[in-house]
Amino acid sequence: MVQRVKTALSLGTLVLAFGAMSALGCASTGEDPSGGGQAAAAGSSGSSGGGSAGTGGSSGTGGSSGDGGSSGAGGSSGTGGSSGTGGSSGTGGSSGDGGSAGAGGSLPPATADDLLAVTRTCPTVVANNLPTDDQESGPVTLCRGNGAIWMDSDMQVDCDGIQTDTCNPDTDGQFQPSSGCQLSGDINLDASQIPWIVWPADEPSISGYFTDVQCGTVVAVIYDGVLVYGIAGDTTENDGTGEASYAMCIALGLSPDNECDPNAMGVQSTDVTYIYFTGPNTVVPELNLLPDTQAMGQQLAAQLVANNPH
Question: Could you tell me the pTM of the whole model?
Fold first, then answer.
């Protein structure tokens, strides 16, 4: 009985001792339920720290401030610099071309009637009583205006120059194989192809009246309402006026078998108007370039009409 009590006491002592040791162990390890709650709190604080770190990640949203960098797209406002295209309004300066239209003078083309209205007057008489080429139809008055000298005379047909099927000794009893003016390389002109007129450059008694004329001077010839541009292409030693190439005669609409026949008398009345343009830029660069002659003639004729009373 006593032994059992002792044993019981001993066991109780052990239990108490073990409980005390357990209490000490739990206190040291924090395994108390309330301590576990603290650990959980610590853990939660870690999770909150992690969350706050996430918030730091949300500062990555600040990286979305990189979108603010997209405000660099605002730099695309530099496109506003494309308003420099507005500078292309400088193209408006190309309206200066309009001024060039002024250079073209935008003068209306001259008609035969326009030119005849000018030549009906005689601002300055250069010479009176000049003979015609046939010495029968005169007298002829040579006049000077602003940009030209002109006269009304008859028209004999000139077939001199290079020999062709149309112009040769057989078709022209007075044929000469040379022309007073030549192309580059001393090549004679073709009277059957180039509209020209003859001027008395080799006749001292009247050549002084034609000092403004030279080979290639642009001329205008009018007959029966027909206007043809040509050049000064041949010279004569005669003191008469009024002679033109076979090509000029045909261009005026006259018959190859009648008036334009070199052996015939041509136009015998003084109804042919000859206009020699004078001044700068009145000589063609090449005598056989008919388009150049036509273009220059049209321009010079328009200027003549604009610059002279009529």
Answer: 0.67
